[in-house]
Amino acid sequence: MSLQDPPKTKPSFLTIDRTHPDFQKYLLGELPNAQVALPIQSLHINSREEKITFQILNRDEVKKPSLLKVLARLMRLDLVGLTLLPVVTVFFEKSGILIEHASFALLSLLFLHGAIYCRNDFVDHLSGIDRLNEKGGSRVIQNGWIRAVTVRRLSRALLVLAVIFSLPVLVNSLNLVWLSALGGGIGIIGYSALRRGRELESGSRRTSANWIAGDLSLFFALGPLLTFGANIVAHDPLPFGRCALLGSGFGILAVSYVEIRHLISVVVDDVAGLRTLAVEFGFDRSKRFVACLFVLAGLCFTLFLVAMHWPWWVLAAALMLILNLGLAIRIWRTSSPLASSLPNILKETLIVHLICGIIVIGFAIL
Questions:
Q1: C-alpha distances in angstroms, 160 versus 108, 120, 163, 331?
Q2: Which of 96, 58, 129 has its CA nearest to residue 274?
Q3: Residue 121 phi, psi dihedral angles, 5° rounding
Q4: pLDDT tens-digit series, residues 220-249
Q5: b (16+ CB within 10 A) / e for 293-319
Q6: Contact criterion met (CB below 8 Å) for 158 and 80
Q7: Which stretch of DSSP H or E encloses residue 184?
Q8: pTM for this entry
Q9: What is residue 34's predicted lDDT score, i.e. its pLDDT?
Q10: Which tens digit of pLDDT belongs to each residue from 275-284?
């Protein structure tokens, strides 16, 4: 070592179990003297025998990206299209929509999107899911970029901002208030069902029912409820049936994306006690279910386009069907959760979701 090289500090490790008085503090990142505790190993999670090994570092030893990149990753802005695109497509169906109302609605959804993903990161860190799965969540907590307690506070702050920006839109429509209450209720029921599903034994009918309820809540939250809400804000440019078809297409693709993630992490989820549909039904049956979802999404978009300009809607519908059928065939042929094709299909699901939205917007502009 040259004279100019700084002396290297010896790594410090600490293993504590759930009975340790500071167990929760280490998980939350509430350490003194600007220290950071990185969870290196977690054993027997969510049990009385749970043990975690932390690597203790000084905060200035943690290498991290810029704050903006960290926040973008934490809020999962790469997935923001799942939340905003269904709304934007409906807004383009209405010429002369009030820019103020549209802007407030989109900002509210953006902050709500960030709040949900921050909350999800915090909960999955404490429950051990993201500590076991090296590819789970945003990894900002596990990498020591932001403390878990800070992520929880940020989630609450973003939720407050979402409510504030929604008020100018909600005060103009009682129907939108009721729809928002319905969406919130479905979200709570779905989240509660998923949490209960984690606590049940594998193979239980109640376990499968809870995860089905969770997927249904996701379908409505990122599909029909978004398009119905946007339709109200835009003063009903779409009839009920077509609005439902459009939302269903987006909602089904969102569920497909989540279930592919579960297929990829099925082994880790099983170890963590996370009773996903992939864990309960097995890889082969789950992949066939996702393949059917892609076909169903393509049919929803096709039926939505039927009332569009002839013959262009036929070409657009054919493109949508080909894209969704292509994903369905590829995932049907996937042989293992370790297959290299699954991460690619995951990314392509987002691309197909975006392309379908662009096609709908294109017809609205014509």
A1: 10, 17, 5, 39
A2: 129
A3: -60, -45
A4: 999 999 999 999 998 888 999 999 999 999
A5: bbbbbbbbbbbbbeebeeeebeebbee
A6: no
A7: helix 174-199
A8: 0.88
A9: 78
A10: 788 888 889 9
